[in-house]
Amino acid sequence: MLSYIEPVLLVLVSLTFLGEPWQSADTFVYIPICAGLVLLAFESAALALESAAKEPAAPKQPAPQVDSARP
């Protein structure tokens, strides 16, 4: 996943801090990468919600019985 995030972060840094101009050819490269990251985020969230819904509640253990007849 980091291999997809790195180019996007590098472009953001170059545009904001280094003042590099945005070229139209860059759009054809970075839009699919961003779309893939969004899909990956949605899939991760869906899997997390699915696993949370399937997790059964832990059964409650009864309290141990204390025998008051024993010394």
How do the strands and helices of this protein lay out in sequence?
Layout: H1 2-16, H2 24-54
Kindly list the characteristics that best describe this protein:
71 residues; mainly alpha; 2 helices; 0% strand
Proportion of strand residues: under 5%
Quaternary assembly? single chain
Number of DSSP helices?
2
Which structural class fits the helix and strand makeup?
A: mainly alpha
Low-pLDDT ranges: none
Q: What does the radius of gyration come to?
A: 26 Å
Please count the beta strands (DSSP E, at least 2 residues each): 0
Alpha-carbon distance between the two ends: 63 Å
Elements, N to C (H/E): HH
Sheet having the most strands: none
Helix-residue proportion: 55-70%
Overall average pLDDT: 82
Net shape = rod-shaped
Structure explained in plain terms:
This protein has 71 residues and is an all-alpha fold. The chain is 65% helix and 0% strand. It contains 2 helices and no strands.
Summarize the structure.
The chain has 71 residues and is an all-alpha fold.
